[in-house]
Amino acid sequence: MRQFVVIGHDAPTTPDFPLDDLPGAAGRLDVLCRCVSAALFRSHGIRDDVAVFLVLGDEVTVRIDAGDLRYMNPDERNVASLLQKALDAKDQAIGHREAESTPGIHVSKRGFEAVLDAVSGTVVELHEDGAPLADVEPPADPTFVLSDHRDFTDEEAALLADASDQRVRVGPEVLHADHTVTVAHNYLDTDGFEVY
Amino acid sequence: MRQFVVIGHDAPTTPDFPLDDLPGAAGRLDVLCRCVSAALFRSHGIRDDVAVFLVLGDEVTVRIDAGDLRYMNPDERNVASLLQKALDAKDQAIGHREAESTPGIHVSKRGFEAVLDAVSGTVVELHEDGAPLADVEPPADPTFVLSDHRDFTDEEAALLADASDQRVRVGPEVLHADHTVTVAHNYLDTDGFEVY
């Protein structure tokens, strides 16, 4: 399974944001929506065996499980509307337990540390100071951890340093988080591409 | 220079489309907007030396030149609003000559064939039946040609076969056009990545 954890530092934790202003009033939610699309969609279908965790303001986490997902289109507005529904269901989530807002979309009152505890597989930090992706053996069940348009805070960086097994970068250019997700997928897709 | 030509088969050719329904009423303009973002943006800046040609309904082309670009954010709605301005300026473009709607964005009444004649460098068709990207020597000045959510029509495919020097695919998975743009950039970025 491939998992992606994306931290949204300025992202909303309540559903009262306008779908018409995702970059502004919704705290760069456009970036997170594109990360979701990049993680889940391939042409004419959904990738199997992928999960995305969006950590919003270090207090709410939306987990999207590709296996059960319904009703999602790859455009930012549609993804944002489903995230809005998830935030609207937040009060049904008690403690760290999740509530399902629409099929495949789960909300919980968890911050970054609790999510790091919950993910499985090899935790890979995607960071501009990491080793080139091409020099790293692809892990079987990677969990990639990324930040939105902001850097990891010192506290996040410390938590991640404890949890992560690898720190990699996708290339010499520093990319947007969603583009990084796409490159990470392609890197895993093309491992052994010759045999296809 | 890196150039990207993206064909939008159902995309609008007039500015009277709603920004609230890019996938539906605006004919999957969301895909083209994400292609523009993927082609132009890196983290905290614009890529130098990139141009994007959006061929809309085989009759209008919007050319976006990264070198002169102003006022663009990477979210779909913002890109779409600038495309709307370009379509609004369409009648200022006479014959195949361009009119500039906002800095760096140019509109002309050109279809796919005229755009293929206008682009420079090595024309590379991105297609699921092409050779794996990793097996192809990166061209110095590539022009990547992609289709939106639809396949190339027979006529487009014939024109492209005449014009293109290479046909490549980005991996075993068939990706969305915008994700393909991201992978193509990464492929060129990381050529010689070891020396960074």
From TrEMBL, chains A, B:
GO biological process: tRNA methylation
Residues that bind S-adenosyl-L-methionine: L126
This enzyme's EC code(s): 2.1.1.257
CDD domains, A to Z: TrmY-like
Species of provenance: Halobacterium jilantaiense
SUPFAM superfamilies assigned to the protein according to its UniProt record, in alphabetical order: alpha/beta knot
A Pfam family: Methyltrn_RNA_2
Highest taxon in the source lineage: Archaea
GO molecular function, one term: tRNA methyltransferase activity
Family: Belongs to the methyltransferase superfamily. TrmY family.
Localization (cell): Cytoplasm
Entry GO CC: cytoplasm
Role of this protein: Specifically catalyzes the N1-methylation of pseudouridine at position 54 (Psi54) in tRNAs.
Keyword set, alphabetical order: Cytoplasm, Methyltransferase, S-adenosyl-L-methionine, Transferase, tRNA processing
PANTHER family linked to this entry: TRNA (PSEUDOURIDINE(54)-N(1))-METHYLTRANSFERASE
Originating gene: trmY
Enzyme's top EC category: transferase
Protein's UniProt name: tRNA (pseudouridine(54)-N(1))-methyltransferase
Catalytic activity: pseudouridine(54) in tRNA + S-adenosyl-L-methionine = N(1)-methylpseudouridine(54) in tRNA + S-adenosyl-L-homocysteine + H(+)
InterPro entries: Alpha/beta_knot_MTases, TrmY, tRNA_m1G_MTases_N
Record note on quaternary structure: Homodimer.
Coiled coil stretches, renumbered: none
